[in-house]
């Protein structure tokens, strides 16, 4: 049992200068600087062992209660690495999410959503009947292509959403057919 008092819990090396695993001493290293930024308390070596491994640490487990400085430094570096990695994964997740959001916005912007333009287009279609055939042809060449054509009438639209809305005007007046049983 006396050998355990002089043994490092991590490397099992013997030394006269060992630190208690429940003492939270500041070392002024990278981890200390990181903890000051986030206003977290200095962890004890026992806390470091617990967070960097899956092995539980308790005072009554009959294992050495001391750690050597080289092992403590490695534990502190490991925790700093773990924190940095977690922060970077979180940042990359936000970037990935923002990219998906931007792609969705780009798709929505590509669609013609302007209600004013739709009303204006419908008004112009009504006015086109009044124009001479040559003027009508010139006006059609200036306009955007209208690939979405209505199957019920001669109208065409620049967006599928516009055609869908227009199609509803044809179905309003028609009675629904009922099947006879």
Explained architecture:
- The chain is mainly alpha-helical.
- The protein has 2 domains: 2-110, His-Me finger endonuclease fold; 115-172, no CATH class.
- Helices cover 55% and strands 4% of the residues.
- It is built from 7 helices and 4 strands; from the N terminus they run H-E-H-H-E-H-H-H-E-E-H.
- The strands form 2 sheets. A two-stranded antiparallel ribbon has the order 1-2.
- It is rod-shaped.
- The N and C termini lie far apart (93 Å).
- The mean pLDDT is 77.
For this entry, give a set of tags.
two-stranded antiparallel ribbon, 4 strands, metal-binding, Znf_C2H2_type, 7 helices, 181 residues, zinc ion binding, 55% helix, Znf_C2H2_sf, zinc-finger, His-Me finger endonuclease fold
Task: Give the helix/strand layout.
Layout: H1 2-5, E1 19-20, H2 30-38, H3 45-52, E2 66-67, H4 69-110, H5 115-128, H6 133-142, E3 148-149, E4 156-157, H7 160-172
Antiparallel strand pairs: 1-2, 3-4
Region (Disordered): 118-181
Protein name: Zinc finger protein Paris
Biased composition (Basic residues): 167-181
- Give the class-level CATH name of the largest domain: Alpha Beta
- Largest sheet strand order: 1-2
Task: Tell me the series of helices and strands, N- to C-terminal.
Answer: HEHHEHHHEEH
Summing up helix and strand content along with how strands pair, one would put the structural category as mainly alpha
CATH architecture of the largest domain: 3-Layer(aba) Sandwich
SS field, number of helical segments: 7
Protein name: Zinc finger protein Paris
GO molecular function, one term: zinc ion binding
Keywords: Metal-binding, Zinc, Zinc-finger
Binding site for Zn(2+): 8, 11, 68, 71
């Amino acid at each position: 049992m006396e050998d355990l008092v002089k043994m490092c819990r991590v490397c099992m090396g013997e030394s006269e200068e060992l630190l208690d695993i429940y003492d939270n001493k500041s070392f002024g290293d990278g981890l200390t600087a990181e903890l000051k930024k986030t206003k977290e308390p200095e962890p004890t070596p026992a806390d470091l062992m617990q967070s960097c491994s899956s092995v539980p640490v308790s005072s009554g487990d009959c294992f050495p209660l001391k750690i050597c400085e080289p092992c403590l430094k490695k534990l502190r570096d490991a925790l700093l690495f773990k924190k940095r990695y977690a922060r970077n994964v979180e940042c990359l997740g936000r970037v990935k999410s923002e990219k998906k959001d931007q792609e969705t916005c780009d798709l929505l912007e590509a669609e013609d959503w302007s209600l004013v333009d739709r009303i204006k287009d419908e008004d112009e279609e009504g006015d086109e009947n009044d124009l001479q055939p040559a003027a009508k042809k010139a006006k059609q060449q200036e306009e955007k292509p209208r690939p979405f054509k209505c199957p019920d009438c001669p109208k065409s639209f620049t967006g599928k959403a516009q055609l869908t809305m227009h199609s509803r005007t044809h179905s309003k007046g028609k009675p629904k057919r009922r099947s006879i049983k």
